[in-house]
């Protein structure tokens, strides 16, 4: 267990100070202490869920409802029109704190904010159709 395991729970409980941007019964949002750009904000469920697939539908809907609202407020405050929403699940996918969180990262210039490289890759038609069938059968 690392020191990051309960970081966000301690922030929500007020045991660790934060710059609160938003709060309701299910969701808490605060400015990132190591921002990639001014206004970089984290939006989290108050209760700890390690990955997005473990978040109950009601909590996921609450996050989905407020993400655009918070993003609009950040973009207006920073006078920035471009931004990224980032959410990682699991250590291999670069999740550092094991508590679901969404980053809202303003992108004021090419130099500031999130830098993303996207490698290209293709699947053949047969593999794509087989994967699609597996995915849709699980919904």
From TrEMBL:
GO terms for biological process: nucleotide metabolic process. One of its GO terms (molecular function) is catalytic activity. SUPFAM superfamilies: HIT-like. A motif (Histidine triad motif) lies at residues 99-103. The active site is at 101 (tele-amp-histidine intermediate). Residues 7-114 form the HIT domain. It holds the Pfam family HIT. This is HIT domain-containing protein.
